[in-house]
Amino acid sequence: MLKIKISDNNLKEREYILDIIFNEFLGLEYSLNIGSNNYELTLPNKKILTIKDTFFNKYPKDLEYLKLENIPNKIEELDIFAASFFMLTRWEEYVNKNRDIHNRFSATESLAYKQDFLDRPIVNEYVEELKSMLLELDSSLVFKKREYQLFLTHWCWLYIKIS
Length: 163
Hints:
Blueprint: E1 2-6, H1 11-25, E2 30-34, E3 39-42, E4 48-51, H2 80-89, H3 91-95, H4 111-114, H5 122-137
Parallel strand pairs: 1-2
Antiparallel strand pairs: 1-3, 3-4
Helix pairs in contact: 1-2, 2-5
């Protein structure tokens, strides 16, 4: 089992993104402990991967990061966990109040558009990068098999009248 040590601030945010990445994406069992200023991942073979916390430790109080001025200029300025949290929760839409006439957040207002990665599955890319790092340290790790399925979200009925 993977052991992850994290800092003691913004715990709900950290728990959320770690669960998404390690459980949902990678299918790895892990235990979570407090006691590191960075993300310290101890693998089953006892090797340690440390990922510097470049975001959440700047904001020790809960939800203190939720301000327009805290949106990064580039996603590369964030660690892999904060960057994934930023992209999946879409908190920039909450703090950026620019809306169209229908009160919708425009993609052109997003960091992804401004940094030209709007059409890339950036979180998937981060997860694959993390997976490669983990495999480099422990080649015996077994990851969840990803099976993709089509889920229709709407039905379109076509009525044709033949004369």
